[in-house]
Amino acid sequence: MTDPVPAQLAPYNFTVKAGRKYFWCACGRSQRQPFCDGSHSGTTLSPVVYTALADEELWFCGCKQTKSPPFCDGSHEMLA
């Protein structure tokens, strides 16, 4: 299984902390969306590591179709 599944057809709003690493779920199977819980095991997909540069509010992709992972690029609008 190599295709990601949409977790939701909207982005996830999350406030990150500077210097902290976040592991964005690329497969869509995690129960801890938008972050990885290891559910990609057995697939060819891996989480995307993002290190926050500042304390800020970001929009993480929920549909897993973004062309700019881990962030939303509006791809979910084509899936609805």
Description of the structure:
With 80 residues, the chain is an all-beta fold. The protein has one domain. It is built from no helices and four strands. It has a two-stranded antiparallel ribbon with strand order 1-4. Strands 2-3 form a two-stranded antiparallel ribbon. The radius of gyration is 12 Å and the shape is globular. The relative contact order is 0.32. The mean pLDDT is 96.
Chain-wise SSE layout:
Blueprint: E1 12-16, E2 21-24, E3 48-51, E4 56-60
Antiparallel strand pairs: 1-4, 2-3
List keywords for this structure.
80 residues, mainly beta, globular, two-stranded antiparallel ribbon
- The helical percent reads under 10%
User: Tell me about the biggest sheet?
Assistant: 2 strands, antiparallel
Structural class: mainly beta
Mean pLDDT level: 96
What is the strand content?
Answer: 15-25%
- Largest beta sheet: what is the strand line-up? 1-4
Structure summarized in a few sentences:
The chain is mainly beta and 80 residues long. It contains no helices and four strands. The protein has one domain (1-64).
